[in-house]
Amino acid sequence: MFPSSLFNFGLFSLSLYLVGCIFEDLFQCRLLGELLIGFIFGHLGQLIPTDKTVLNLAGELGVLALIFEAGLCTELWKVARVGPYAALVGVIGSAVPFLTGFGFIYASRNQYGHSGDNEGSPTFDPVSEAIASGAALASTSIAIAVSIMRKRGILETAEGALITTAAMLDDVISLILLGIVSALGTPQQTLSEKRIGAMTILKPLLSSLGITIIALLGCLAVSRRKARPLEAGDSIERDEVPEQAPETPEVHPECEIDRIDNDKDGSSKITWRQLVAQTKAWVVLRYGPLVSSILLSAMILVGLGYSVLAEYIGSTKFLGAFMAGVLCSNFPTLKRLHHKHVVLTVQPALSAIFFATIGFAIPLDKLLEPTLFAWGVLYAIIGSLSKIIVAAVVPSSLQKVVQRASGETTVPIENEIQSRRIHYRWIVGTAMIARGELGLLIAQQAVEQGVMGSSVMVVSTWSIVLCTLVGISALGVVMNKGL
Q: Cα separation of 445 and 137, whole Å?
């Protein structure tokens, strides 16, 4: 007899894919469809096994891969170019939503059973809940913003770099805040009972700073290594050095060997650099697929290892995964391998499982409660306004950055300058509204670590979902209308 559990799991997997595609086509937000499927299969009958340990592990691996990819797509030269502007937008775009989210949740704590969700349930500290919810609303979805900007053709522009860099900073700040919340203590304690010393806050801050600095120093070392000029004692002309040694199967080693053997002066002398290049070419030709597998595995191990290190020293594994991706972004070969063998294959499935596991954790009775939905709508309005306020602080000198990035030499007339300036500001402001994956992740982690109750989790989830839909729609309107 065909087991029903196997059929149900197959139906679950198919639904994740199909509904995700539908939401991607209609709303440009696949994760909301996957969240819906997780909620349906997690609550409406025993459609999937009660023990979801394997699914939760797969989902956590998926979100690590998602955050690693965000770091891998970071281009540090663009970050350096718009760094001061991105810092301003990022700090305001995370501080204002965090403070307003904290204030909203703390002020409304008695309006919907904030202290205890049910009789006999643990009493959650309102300050910790407010901090966790504010951290979730402080984040910005890099994936959604990048996806929309790529389709619209503005990802490579200065405003695209500004948005992605500011969103990255928002997410780093949110992850650090989550680390602080995790260190506050057990949910059964009140704030006065907790002994919060300076190291309670400083440890995750310093650990996160250390993880970030180490990764950036690694990027600097790699950049200097690539830019190192030939030494005088090499006894070799620059023209004799291959422009790029073959590193991947995409490069044709036979052509590389022929180019090295036929020097301009007709000399048959082979320098040590040419010998290394020929050896690399032969290895790629003979063992190309195996070398690619080894490089890809090494990159994944670096990501996992750095995540474990970050968690071990008191930061978060998610920040470790992001910074490991930033470090690996200096190697074009690794980026191509990751895109071909991870992004286009296993990562979509693992990410879909992650968003489904968030749906598992949302309580059915609380989600359908009108009061919580109403508070969630109000929270979403506040959250959207607190993000779009960054449009007012986008520097007017961003126009010069845009010209340098795009290579413009002509100076537009004054009316055109003013029009484009307003357009850029609204693009930045609306792109920051969508919360998406990291906001949901922070809310889920806060529940699992015992600092957020189900009522606040539902209100926060409604706000994150609605903000994501509003952000996608608003950004599309701005780009279509050219406001």
A: 14
The mean predicted confidence, pLDDT, of the chain is 75
How far apart CA 182 and CA 60 sit, in angstroms, is: 17
Question: In degrees, to the nearest 5, what angle opens at C-alpha 35 toward C-alphas 348 and 11?
Answer: 70
For the record, the structure tokens of 129 come out as 């809940």
Comparing CA positions, the residue from 98, 165, 123 lying closest to residue 439 is 98
CB neighbour list of residue 89: distance below 8 Å, 6 or more residues apart:
162, 166, 390, 393, 394, 428, 432
pLDDT at 300: 92
Higher pLDDT, 276 or 385: 385
What is this structure's pTM? 0.73
SS3 for the chain is CCCHHHHHHHHHHHHHHHHHHHHHHHHCCHHHHHHHHHHHHHHCCCCCCCCCHHHHHHHHHHHHHHHHHHHHCCCHHHHHHHHHHHHHHHHHHHHHHHHHHHHHHHHCCCCCCCCCCCCCCCCCCHHHHHHHHHHHHHCCCHHHHHHHHHHHCCCCCHHHHHHHHHHHHHHHHHHHHHHHHHCCCCCCCCCCCCCCCHHHHHHHHHHHHHHHHHHHHHHHHHHHHHHCCCCHHHCCCHHHCCCCCCCCCCCCHHHHHHHHHCCCCCCCCCCHHHHHHHHHHHHHHHHHHHHHHHHHHHHHHHHHHHHHHHHHCCCCHHHHHHHHHHHHCCCHHHHHHHHHHHHCCCHHHHHHHHHHHHHHHCCHHHHCCHHHHHHHHHHHHHHHHHHHHHHHHCCCCHHHHHHHHHCCCCCCCHHHHHHHHHHHHHHHHHHCCCCCHHHHHHHHHHHHCCCCCHHHHHHHHHHHHHHHHHHHHHHHHHHHHCC
Lowest mean pLDDT, pick from 260-264, 300-304, 375-379, 469-473: 260-264
pLDDT at site 411: 43
Q: What is the pLDDT of residue 448?
A: 79
pLDDT at 381: 93
Q: What is the mean pLDDT of residues 430-452?
A: 81
The Cα–Cα gap between 432 and 443 comes to 18
Where residue 232 falls among pLDDT bands split at 50, 70, 90?
Answer: very low
pLDDT at position 399: 52
d(CA 139, CA 112): 24
Q: How many CB atoms lie within 10 A of CB 184?
A: 21
Residue 173 C-alpha from the chain's centroid: 12
Considering the chain, what percentage of its residues have pLDDT values greater than 70? 71
